[in-house]
Amino acid sequence: MQIVARWETALTIDDHEALSVLLRAAFPAQAEQFDGRSWALSYGRKEARVWLADDTGRPVAHLGLERRTVGVGGADDLVAGVGDVAVAPELQGRGLGAALMRALVDLRGLPW
Predict the structure, then answer these.
(1) Which end of the chain has less neighbouring CB within 10 Å, N or C?
(2) Pairwise CA distance, residues 83 & 64, whole Å
(3) ∠41-46-47 over CA atoms, to 5°?
(4) By C-alpha distance, which of 91, 89, 97, 96 is closest to 25?
(5) pTM (2 decimals)?
(6) Residue 15 phi, psi dihedral angles, 5° rounding
(7) Cα–Cα distance between 10 and 110 in angstroms, integer?
(8) Do 38 and 19 touch, CB atoms closer than 8 A?
(9) What is the DSSP pairing of strand 59-72 with strand 75-87?
(10) Tens digits of per-residue pLDDT, 77-104?
């Protein structure tokens, strides 16, 4: 598996199409929200995306990120708001969601 991390503005049309396929499969009850797009129609687009791609380059697990500032102990800290977590139905239960979260921790040097 390959880890892919991209800002929303760097996604290609092919990325959006491939992520749309994954998100429609992972969220069948809300599939129409992802028709022709890689974000839910009823929500804003994320700032960045992280996904796992199989050996053919097909996204098989995905999450979206938004930077947020939270107050902790009187100081402001930058954190990542995580959403749109999805795993291809045929691969669910194999730890890919956990692998995505570990990848996100490994990418913490990036500005999100």
Answers:
(1) N
(2) 5
(3) 150
(4) 89
(5) 0.83
(6) -60, -50
(7) 15
(8) yes
(9) antiparallel
(10) 888 788 889 999 999 999 999 998 888 8
**CA triple 102-105-106, angle to 5 deg:** 90
- HSE value, Cβ hemisphere, 13 Å, CA-based, for 97: 12
Closest to 5 in 3D by CA, of 39, 36, 47: 47
User: Which phi and psi angles does 36 have, rounded to 5°?
Assistant: 70, 10
57: tokens are 């380059």
Q: What does the mean pLDDT of the chain come to?
A: 87
| Joined tokens for residue 69 | 């500032």
User: In Å, what is the CA distance from 7 to each residue of 3, 85, 107, 109?
Assistant: 14, 16, 13, 14
